[in-house]
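Quick question, first post here. What does this chain look like in 3D?
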Amino acid sequence: MQALTPDDALLPGLAAVPEVRSLLEAVDLPIGRWDAEGRLTFFNPPYLAWAHRTPQELRGKSLKELYGDEAWAAAQPAFERGFAGQQADYLRLLRHLDPPRWARIQVFPERGQDGRIEAIYTIAHDVHDDVTTATALKRANWLLEQALDNLPWGVIESNSALVITRWSRSAQAILGYTEAERLGTHRLSLGVPEEERARTLAVYERLLRGEIDNWVEQAQYIRKDRRRIWVEWTLSALRDEEGRVVSLLTFVRDVTHQVDTHARLLHHAERDALTGVLSRRAIMERLDTALSRRTRGDMLALYFIDLDGFKQINDRLGHVRGDRLLIQVAHAIQDVLRRDDAIGRLGGDEFVVLSAVADLSAAQSLAAKLVEVSAAAGYDLLSGLRVTASIGVAAVPTHARSSFELLQRADDAMYTAKKEGKNRWALCNQRLDGGENNRPHL
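> Answer (accepted):
Ran it through. Tokens below.
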């Protein structure tokens, strides 16, 4: 059956009309009529069963008398609106039921022939399941909000237009911007370095197109205080039943300490403990990488450096003074190299330098400079003893094709420089094209 409608409620003397009264009694919803003094003057059979009272206990009583102060506090604003000629409704927990149940009560005014409000009608609807479900959902959402705000990871959510719709407290703590500053803004409008924006946007677009469902990466972020930090982003695309992206959920954490620690460990692993130049393993890896990236026509020169007279220094002055000279020579060589060049220590008093050069003439010019700075830095002021350098030079593609072959050719050229009198450089004399090189030079 249908509930009472607003038009029905406006009929004068509604409950007094026999036909209407019969209809009200037939409606399977609790209906009550309250006069201008707020007294219950009519109730249908469902109301009687719903109230758990006898007709004598109900008739002529106010809602407060029937159900108590709490019930009247919930109903009073709606009753006042009803007597003011407005329709209203309110929620009330029916504590007279066992167990209590939630109901939504609709309130309709009844006008007399003169247009004045003579009474109001109430119609009760059982909404207990809806209310408890909504309450449970509200609590679940509250718990989720609390959990997200208290996670060690920041939580950021944005819609398919990349406009931010959620910014947790942890996100504020990590990234520096408040929720008010970020809600409604574009994901890339703040924080993402300019040089990273195109690549980051490409990742979001792949997520939106459905090419990937999630993405994890480490990247730099510029906080509000302009401090750069390293963060780890974990992005996921949340989709509806039709596969359309409804939001992008991101968990973010500060990994600056981990990145810095890894960089320090990597630096120590790559560096020679004594001189600070690249270790043997690191310089050989650098050589392999340079060869793999070399394009046709590029020349890569390798310089094999062996210090002359270093054993005499160690024997006469001791290893501490000898180590000091090794450090001086290594640093002097590093100072004349370009940023993309590399120097590494193979062990003992042997070093290699790797440099991309324009041609053999440029390779030989650098060799002469390395001989010069090695001799200048290899002087022990207290003893007057000096170490110099014999340097062998080989280049790809002129003398070798592989890293092993290049190192061997440079080593052979270094021995040539030793035989020629030391404190000089020599160019590999085994060209792959069968031609001849210039003689070694001081």
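Confidence is low (pLDDT under 50) at residues 1-12, 438-442.
The first strand starts at residue 31 and ends at 35.
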